[in-house]
Amino acid sequence: MNLQFPNGFSWGAATSGPQSEGRFNKKHANVFDHWFEVEPESFHNQVGPDVASNFYNSYKEDIKLMKEVGLNSVRTSIQWTRLIDDFETATLNQDGVDFYNNVIDELLANDIKPFINLHHFDLPVELYDKYGGWESKHVVDLFVKFAEQCFKLFGDRVSEWFTHNEPMVVVDGQYLYQFHYPKVVDGKKAVQVAFNLQLASSKAVAKFKEVNTNPDGRIGIILNLTPSYPASDDPADQKAANFANLWFNQIFLDPSILGEYPAELVEILENDGVLFEATKEELAIIKENTIDILGVNFYHPHRVKQPDVSPDSLRFNWMPVKYFDNYDMPGRRMNIDRGWEIYPKALYDIAINVKENYGNIAWFVAENGMGVSNEELFQDETGVVQDDYRINFIKEHLTELHKGIEEGSNCIGYHLWTPIDCWSWSNAYKNRYGFIANNIHTQVKTIKKSGHWFKDVADNNTLEI
Ligand code: BGP
């Protein structure tokens, strides 16, 4: 059976500046560059971001490979620490300007539409040290200055812009669960950081509307959506799932698309004494500057049950796990290497949720993918990784997505994480996700079986199942 996708569907893949470029000629360090300098043992096999997949040096060859696997669109991010020389004034680093101009031109010359994101966890460490990073509203304004430079420099050729990738990961990783530097545990700060990230996004949207001259230009945000399913019909489990959806999903979805925070979430945070500080003017900016397009990263759902209030959750001033516990549902399918559940139907649920509750805004799958360790074990005698598991994973997700599109959801594309195996936040090169393998010792890049398969799907705009 053949599943036909809408005309003009974006078939692509996503990466980010800090995970692909390497630190070559980069004047400033971001928080991950710094973390690796001070704590290399926190990174898998002590591999840091210095080389990544060498995109800074090999972007031409890499883009050629991207073309060979059929991509008609590619997302990457502009590194604040590469483009900007002085963060206060947003003066430019010419080498960074030249590099991003070259990348954008090279993508276009290969008929690949650039999707450009501005923040992918890569806050300049200097702004953390001086101001507390996203805890500070001054940093919000500095981000907008950086964004303005990007819109003005590249907006003539870039039409698809995104403010943040997965802001919730900054909140969770840096301020609650200690999986990203600086590993603070502070619920009140976490809530304020979530607000400041939203404010930065909305202010950047406002700036975009002011300076954009590209008639096709549009701007959005990329959110990691994790539909949260209750463990049972028990009202206490349902209540827990409702909170998890508010916390993981609606906290950015609602203000970004509807211009307002969910009243229920605001009430809970207020009652708990951790509501963010926001002025009337800031709330008005959020209200007026909603996005044009939504990117959705989908890897796994959440399974939740009523909380078993443990001393751990009370040890700190506030923790969202006060309201839910993770539920290890018996028999669920897992990607053991990454520890994430595989549940393609959630993508259909997302498609319907966006259609029914968010005005059927244009959206696309901005990341989806399967991280696998030791992929060299799956190479055939010619060195091609036989990643049938990835092909099946993509097929299953596309099938659910297609069902959502058939039912009217306005999904305009599907991007795999990632085109070429790249470096990751502390996982380094443990899990490989790409259509194209990267030997990190030799930097030799080889198309995997999934890359050849995807080219057929993209060229025909059709999935054969
Ligand atoms: C997403 C991030 C990506 C990427 C991906 C895979 O959350 O946006 O940057 O890293 O997850 O995660 P990991 O590499 O940790 O397995």
Automatic annotation (TrEMBL):
Name of the molecule in the record: Family 1 glycosylhydrolase
GO cellular-component term (any): cytosol
Source lineage: Bacteria, Bacillati, Bacillota, Bacilli, Lactobacillales
InterPro entries, sorted: GH, Glyco_hydro_1
Gene Ontology MF: a single term: beta-glucosidase activity
Family: Belongs to the glycosyl hydrolase 1 family.
Gene Ontology biological process terms, A to Z: carbohydrate catabolic process
Pfam families: Glyco_hydro_1
Swiss-Prot/TrEMBL keywords: Glycosidase, Hydrolase
Originating species: Fundicoccus ignavus
Gene3D superfamilies cross-referenced by the UniProt entry: Glycosidases (3.20.20.80)
Hydrolase is among the record's keywords: yes
Superkingdom to which the source organism belongs: Bacteria
